[in-house]
Amino acid sequence: MEKMEHFSHIHPLLLKQEKINNNNRVLCSGCEDPISGPVFSCDQCNYNLHKTCAEMPRHVKHPFHPEHPLVLLSTSPYEGRYVCDSCRGIFQNFVYHCYICSYDLDVSCASQCNPDDGHKHEFMSVTNPQSFVCYACGLQGNEGLACLCTICQIWVHSSCAELPLAVKIKSHDHPLKLTYALHHVYGFWGNITCGVCNGAMSAAFAGYFCSTCRFPVHLKCLQQDEWEAVTEDEKSSTDYETGESLDVDFAFSFFGHEHLLKLTDEESDLRYSGKLCDGCIQPIMPPLLSCEEENCGFILHQSCVGLPRTKLHPFHAHPLTLLPKAPNYDGIYRCDGCKRLSNGFVYRCDMCQFDLDVCCGSLQERIEHESHLHPLLLKKTTVGRQCKGCQRWSKYVFVCDVCEDFAIDCGCATLPLKAWHMYDKHPLSLNYFAEEGLREYECGICNEKTCPKQWFYYCDDCDSGAHPYCVEGKSRRVKFGGSFQYDVHSHPLALVEETDQNTKCEACGECCNGWTLECDQCKSYFHREGQCFWKEFKKSAKYLELSGVMRHRYAANVLASTPNVTTK
């Protein structure tokens, strides 16, 4: 029996021929229509999806909204139901949503049009009574004469409608094929580098590409190069229709990074063992995106490349914007969800100075957790709830609707089930079921007692325990290295976790303990925590140019981003 892990549900779904309920008709949890035919069903709860709904793509480019890609969400992105911008129907569940424009399509309307990749239908010249966005080039079209495909319901400029399906150009050896969906060819929605002009071209719109070596070309660059249309005989004599392609390097630009990125998909490449993604600050292995510059070291998960640029989150009333670096002095910030420090990407509300790291920003709104019998829901509560894991109070929690007294905060909800630490050679297991009256363990890291009410890590072999915050350390979501230009020194400084005991700070002359800023050129060192760092920060140009409330807020954010501010 076919089994599927679907993004919309916490349990595996099994394919069945038809879901039958003698008492009530069964509705699809995606499109909300009655179930008939093959269905993916959950045996543990009443969750069912048409096979067609379960197999719908997560991202689409749609002719009803060609400006931006639409992402498939499992529930309405708003409080309550949403209104489909095509049929004006009101729906609750699956929706294709544009985070930029808040444009919404229900799955039925989204399935009506599926333009052919190279578009081989005939266009009809008609007078368009209003302006439009050309589905091919992405530029604005004015009122007047335009071309419409009545099958796919797409509008294009008259000049774009005349584009040949295949061409040969002087600057490339192989035939090039027209595609209206470059993102299908290259596997992402970012910008690609045109092989003719070296400029950026969007993968969300049409272009020419080589199916042999994936050489991409702008539509506009076709006019700047000598070209000729490929005849039907030439098409059949090449492998260009097969869709097969060689694995070759191609590069594209990514917001927030000054260099081009390339795909690295050799899973046996050991260069990335122990490395961290610059977006989510989690371990990374190929396939991944890496910087073309040899000494840059910038790497990203493919999933982090596809993160939505704006999103609504249960923790905050305003939309959050994805930034490649927090504006807090040197990019280090404290996540308002889990309270951990990070220097990766941040989902931020500038108005409220509210920050979430990628992990908290991407949390599912409904999870199953080993610490509790019932599913947990992600919420911002009106009053603080005491976390069952650490006993701290927080409004940003997972709660149980069945058991009113159960809540865990984001930090405890994302603790790994297994962890390793240098103090113990065995793996440590997270123990949830601590109760009063049970034995208190001495933490093998800080040598203080563990609290019987709090979760702790336990080693079965050594019969020893450890606090979760001691096992994690203060740097779990911080990537060391890189460089940043601080006011305290003329050269860029790299963040390092620790240095030799005899290393002296150039600013205060004391030994550098903990986080340290290192100059690779002149081997100078400066504190990145403690009173010394705080004094030097208050001399910085950015701090001095601010005044009043703005200076106070800026300083408070920087103070919160220092590791000596405890969150135990």
Automatic annotation (TrEMBL):
Superkingdom classification of source: Eukaryota
Pfam families according to UniProt: C1_2
Domain Zinc finger PHD-type: 27-88, 133-214, 276-339, 442-509
Keyword Glycosyltransferase: no
Molecular function per GO: zinc ion binding
Transmembrane segments: none
Keywords: Metal-binding, Repeat, Zinc, Zinc-finger
Record-given protein name: Zinc finger PHD-type domain-containing protein
Taxonomy of the source species: Eukaryota, Viridiplantae, Streptophyta, Embryophyta, Tracheophyta
